[in-house]
Amino acid sequence: MSLGKRSIYKSVCLALALLLAVAVFQRSLTPSQFLQGPLPATLGLQKVQIPTGEHLVNPNDFWKISKGSVAPTHPASRGPQAWDVTTINCSANINLTQQPWFQGLEPHFQQFLLYRHCRYFPMLLNHPEKCAGDVYLLVVVKSVITQHDRREAIRQTWGRERVAAGGGRGAVRTLFLLGTASKQEERAHYQQLLAYEDRLYGDILQWDFLDSFFNLTLKEVHFLKWLDIYCPGVRFVFKGDDDVFVNPANLLEFLADRRPQEDLFVGDVLKHARPIRKKENKYYIPGALYSKASYPPYAGGGGFLVAGGLARRLHRACDTVELYPIDDVFLGMCLEVLGVQPTAHAGFKTFGISRNRNSRMNKEPCFFRSMLVVHKLLPAELLAMWGLVHSNLTCSRKLQML
Ligand SMILES: *[C@@H]1O[C@H](CO)[C@@H](O)[C@H](O)[C@H]1NC(C)=O
Ligand SMILES: *[C@@H]1O[C@H](CO)[C@@H](O)[C@H](O)[C@H]1NC(C)=O
Ligand SMILES: *[C@@H]1O[C@H](CO)[C@@H](O)[C@H](O)[C@H]1NC(C)=O
Ligand SMILES: *[C@@H]1O[C@H](CO)[C@@H](O)[C@H](O)[C@H]1NC(C)=O
């Protein structure tokens, strides 16, 4: 092929690829179109495409090519421009099975340790466009595929997006973080439903790892890597569970006099927490896995705020720390690498307002109105409490938590 012909061939291919990307883009942004007919088979699972030839544009790069404003460029130390893990290539570390201490562990710890070195998995659902423009606060919610009702309640309440955060600040956007269904028999069915849900709302990030309790740390590292790639300019991140109550107005008020450059990491901070050695506890950790007497300071995973810049540094720091089965403790270990202390704030009640479950305070809207984050509410309770907090509530005194 002559040089001229080759360049024509290249530009035709590029144009075709761009057309394809625009078509995909439009489809994913037009729920009404999607609602008119059945889901075409080819769109059932919006897999991240792996380019089949050099001349094909990776859809992930599309955002970079077409919109200069998508990701503010940070010339210093940029990593990959798109999710760069496309295959699962990780076998069990059978070396461990020879070790006597390993043989004595409970099976789920053995499972964790065998695959501990498998750090990154491919993406199944991605939304690079979430970080287009000026994003002031990115709200990310840990969720699992079966908890559709929780996501729905959050979308109607504290997860509602805002074009502007007020006071000249940028947008507030929301994303849900998911792995795959943990039960084999649930997988195909729920995956289809999730694809529908994502077509409607376009707010799901999904990676190809099992959504199990011990894999929550994987979710943490995957999100931090994602943020570093697709959302480098975001000012602040709120990360929380899908069963908490959040008061976004209070979050935004709290952030109003903070700078995104600060080493801000705020939540319900535990200091000198000891690893739990009682086997029947959900958070039990055998001595073989963590031998020190106490954990570094960490924020309860129910909900915390982190500055965008710090989140990006956390991504790099976490890459140097071995995965730990408890995700919030793991993040504490990453903070320790950076020498950053998480800050405690009384408005984060990730263990409930009162630890006494039957306390009336746990149902008192005036308390919820003054808080930033409260654990733990079922979807119906969340909707009801949200309604109460945003009604003409007369509280005897204004609680000053901020
Ligand atoms: C998977 O890993 C093995 C050994 O680590 C390597 O030889 C192989 O090329 C890898 N395959 C892919 C598709 O990356
Ligand atoms: C297993 O042991 C061999 C030899 O000691 C080492 O080269 C290899 O990296 C180990 N595998 C893993 C997954 O740690
Ligand atoms: C985490 O996910 C990976 C990939 O799906 C899986 O192989 C592994 O068993 C999971 N780990 C745990 C502890 O559930
Ligand atoms: C709340 O109070 C304001 C003024 O007191 C009133 O205008 C408004 O209609 C009330 N809203 C509801 C939902 O009762």
TrEMBL record:
Metabolic or biological pathway, per its Swiss-Prot or TrEMBL entry: Protein modification; protein glycosylation
Localization per record: Golgi apparatus membrane
First-listed, main subcellular location of the protein, grouped into a coarse class: Golgi
Enzyme class: transferase
Domain of life the protein comes from: Eukaryota
Protein topology in the membrane: Single-pass type II membrane protein
GO MF entry, a single one: hexosyltransferase activity
InterPro entries recorded: Glyco_trans_31
Signal peptide: 1-23
Enzyme Commission (EC) number: 2.4.1.-
One BP annotation, GO: protein O-linked glycosylation
GO cellular component labels: Golgi membrane
Keyword list, A-Z: Glycoprotein, Glycosyltransferase, Golgi apparatus, Membrane, Signal, Signal-anchor, Transferase, Transmembrane, Transmembrane helix
Function in brief: N-acetyl glucosamine (GlcNAc) transferase that catalyzes the transfer of GlcNAc via a beta1->3 linkage from UDP-GlcNAc to the non-reducing terminal galactose (Gal) in the linearly growing chain of N- and O-linked keratan sulfate proteoglycans. Cooperates with B4GALT4 galactosyltransferase and CHST6 and CHST1 sulfotransferases to construct and elongate mono- and disulfated disaccharide units [->3Galbeta1->4(6-sulfoGlcNAcbeta)1->] and [->3(6-sulfoGalbeta)1->4(6-sulfoGlcNAcbeta)1->] within keratan sulfate polymer.
Family: Belongs to the glycosyltransferase 31 family.
Protein name: Hexosyltransferase
